[in-house]
Amino acid sequence: RTVYLNGAYVPEEEAKVSVFDRGFLFADGVYEVTAVLDGKIAEFEGHVARLKRSLGELGMSMPVDSDELLAIHHELIKRNNLQEGAIYLQVTRGAADRDFVFPKEATQTLVLFTQAKDLTSEKAGIKVISIPDIRWGRRDIKTVQLLAPSMGKMMAKAEGKDDAWMVEDGFVTEGTSNNAYIVTKNGKIITRNLSNSILHGITRAAVLRLAAELDMEIEERPFTIAEAQDAAEAFITAATIFVCPVVEIDGAAINNGVPGPISKRLNDVYIEEARKAAC
Ligand code: PLP
């Protein structure tokens, strides 16, 4: 694979970052993951806008402008001959002698790489467990501080399940790397309202817009695991997952353990729209 590192396209074995990089020492960095469909980028503008916001919240600015970022994405897609998959982008504050205080002068580290993946095949649906949400309080910033969600996913795997929904003060915040939704028995889509408690998913915004266009009812509010277990359907969304049905929550089958019609419909519509708008 060819990866991008600070202005250069290099073979992955040759891409080297300093041991003093604050991304490595402090998780002082942010990232984005964007889907590639038909060799084109999905939701580019949304991801760049969130990247700018994440950086801003941490007192950083964009290492290169939006046009250049787009050009880098295109060049990597071309060099790696990527048709379907993901582009990972990470910006850290850069390398400086280790100190909790932000360095006055450090050059940001910008890394991008591609991952080839099948994103569009029919999804079987996933089984989730619930776990306490032990993450920090600024989950709206997409930092590379991912140990809690990584441990959560490992707990799910240890139980033979696929993923975990995190719970705080009795209510589901989100999945380890996705936003969480339920569909009530009368067809209303429920997902937690935006706040610092969850990541503002780019896919979430698009799916809620599409659902509204399809005249589906939406309510943005917290919900409990008990309410989710009693729901007609449940699903998650994320940039490279799109809309994925959840068929089991803490051992309770949802929709008799098979993907529900609303999740499927939203996934189909989302992929169709994302393909059309990809750039
Ligand atoms: N919530 C968390 C914690 C995530 O890590 C992610 C994405 O990876 C999402 C939600 C979904 O966000 P997006 O739809 O922008 O990929």
How is the topology of this model organized?
Layout: E1 2-5, E2 8-11, H1 22-26, E3 29-37, E4 40-41, H2 44-57, H3 66-79, E5 85-92, E6 109-116, E7 126-132, H4 147-158, E8 163-168, E9 171-175, E10 179-183, E11 189-191, H5 202-213, E12 218-220, H6 225-229, E13 233-238, E14 242-249, E15 252-253, H7 261-277
Bound molecules: pyridoxal-5'-phosphate.
Pyridoxal-5'-phosphate (PLP) binds at residues 33, 174, 177-179, 199, 201-204, 237-239.
Structure description:
There is one protein chain. The chain is of the alpha+beta class. The chain folds into 2 domains: 2-116, D-amino Acid Aminotransferase, Chain A, domain 1; 126-277, D-amino Acid Aminotransferase, Chain A, domain 2. The chain has 7 helices and 15 strands. It has helices at residues 22-26, 44-57, 66-79, 147-158, 202-213, 225-229, 261-277; strands at residues 2-5, 8-11, 29-37, 40-41, 85-92, 109-116, 126-132, 163-168, 171-175, 179-183, 189-191, 218-220, 233-238, 242-249, 252-253. Strands 7, 8, 9, 10, 11, 12, 13, 14 and 15 form a 9-stranded mixed beta sheet that branches. A 6-stranded antiparallel beta sheet has the order 2-1-6-5-3-4. Pyridoxal-5'-phosphate binds at residues 33, 174, 177-179, 199, 201-204, 237-239.
